[in-house]
Amino acid sequence: LKMSCFWFYLPLHLLMATYLCHSVKAPTTSSQQSFETDLFNFYHSLILADGKETTVHLLKDIPKRYCFVLEEGRVLAPFSITVTPCDVPIEWSIFVYKSPPGLPGKATPDDHDTQEVSKSQKTSSMVSTIFSYKGNSVETYMGMSSHSALYLLEFLSTERDTHITVYLTTDTTSGHLYPELPMDPRIDVIGIGHTTVTLTWKHSPSVLQHGESIQYCLLVNEKHNYKSLCAAETAIRSSGMKLPPTLALSLSPYLLEPQQVMILSNSELSIINKVSSGEVRQVCMGTRNTYTVPNLSPSTQYYFDVFIVNLLTNASAAYTGTFARTLEAPEPKVTELKDGKVIHVVLDGKKQKSYSLQYQARHKKIHFTFQLCQGQIRVHITRNGKAVASENLSGLRYLSLKGKLLDTYLVQLRSTEESNSSVKVQASPHFHKPLFPLLPESLKIKSFSKLRTCRSVTIAWLGTQEESKYCVYRKRIEEDQIWRELQSADRCSGPESRHKSEKVLCKYFYDLNLQRAVTTETIKGLEAGTFYLFDVYLFGPSGIPVRYHSKVVKTRKKC
């Protein structure tokens, strides 16, 4: 509300003081002299609302000013001003204008002498600075106000555009807008694990008085502590995340953004924001003052801030933040690889996401073979501690490495998805008899649409220059089972996992000319308008099969 709205309600002495607030440029935090000399537009000075939190937007290097006065008739009364920076440090000050003696009422015989004093001397004697602060902490000033005084607040941001909140109250008897902090507002770390940190803090007096409308909310991030809730929200927004207006409001699921994940369990609400600087977690746990933060990363430093939030007013107060570093991950169990031996590694995407294998070379050339069975797995190989290979596995993969005798190779396998993953691994000298058969250029099965009938399907696949055994299997499936069958197929499993009735035939085939190394097969005795899953297994000299990519074909409905 502009100051001009109050001209008719002020007595003469405050009217003149208010005029000064309008017509004389208010002081900056670096110089009080400008208050006494420079004129400035009164629209730049606003009345600060009493008993209401006001959001103030600041432009860089441009001061913003607010005035306030007490109601007429109140001689002395306590008041408090709380300023909360929501981003960068700011400068703010409180100035008081007190009317000089003899200003109100009738003139006195000494008025003529008084008028001889320069206006600048009068103004200087009437204006004083009672409080100044520079920083980004939440600060509260408490004082006694007189009905003959006009107060002016000035705010300045020298770093960049920002915003703050200001709360003025002259009623200190009917409770507080902000929840109260305990005498000791520190957060204590009482337990640290590889992936967990347990915290506790003293209860807020507001919990005992207004338990139903008060709750604790925890903010976890990997960057730094925040001195206020609005500072935390501003930081998250500046990283590209859209955030509800307050943490209390974020309890409404419909306010979640696509980049947010909400988890509700045991009356706790967790919201995880995916931001460029890592995860930012918000957890509200009611009035419990002990909490174990789960699912953290090992050997990582986290910062923890607890806010006591009034759900009715959305006002909050911040405990003194803390930080803790989770313990280093335990050394993974290392399994020894032996020449020519195949190890089948199964990884649980949720519990055990990595597995380590060690191999000591007895020859200069080493041949690693990986057959991905399920899921997605990334392999990382080091030789004597130095990385020599790292990639995502797909199908069957051979890696040949050259080093020295007795080199130590460490093979680390990591699942890259939540579902189970598995892989077969073999290490051997380069000249060792190959474990898997010679593979064709492609493991795809092709079907010929024009050769489909109601009772038969014709398929084809590539062979190699090495005589090998090929076995064909079929399985009748429903249309809604296709996706699940293709996704869950274990590419390492052999025909022993199939029902005997699914076997169609086995045959031997090869061609020295790779251009002609193609074979076809017509599978008969099928039902019309039915989906069938076809698999081909290739057997090499070692007898270990390689499964071609499954193919689904539907027979014609009418012929």
UniProtKB/TrEMBL annotation:
One annotated Gene Ontology cellular component of this protein: extracellular region
Q: Which domain of life is it from?
A: Eukaryota
**Where is this chain's protein located in or outside the cell?**
Secreted
Q: Output one GO BP term.
A: nervous system development
Q: What SMART domains does UniProt report for this protein, alphabetically?
A: FN3 (SM00060)
Q: Which UniProt keywords apply?
A: Glycoprotein, Neurogenesis, Repeat, Secreted, Signal
Q: Name one Pfam family in it.
A: NDNF_N
- Signal peptide: which range, if any? 1-23
GO molecular function annotation: heparin binding
Domain Fibronectin type-III: start-end pairs:
179-316, 437-545
- What does the record give as the function of this protein? Secretory protein that plays a role in various cellular processes. Acts as a chemorepellent acting on gonadotropin-releasing hormone (GnRH) expressing neurons regulating their migration to the hypothalamus. Also promotes neuron migration, growth and survival as well as neurite outgrowth and is involved in the development of the olfactory system. May also act through the regulation of growth factors activity and downstream signaling. Also regulates extracellular matrix assembly and cell adhesiveness.
Q: What is this protein called?
A: Protein NDNF
Q: Which organism is it from?
A: Pardalotus punctatus
The organism's taxonomy opens as:
Eukaryota, Metazoa, Chordata, Craniata, Vertebrata
Gene name per UniProt: Ndnf_0
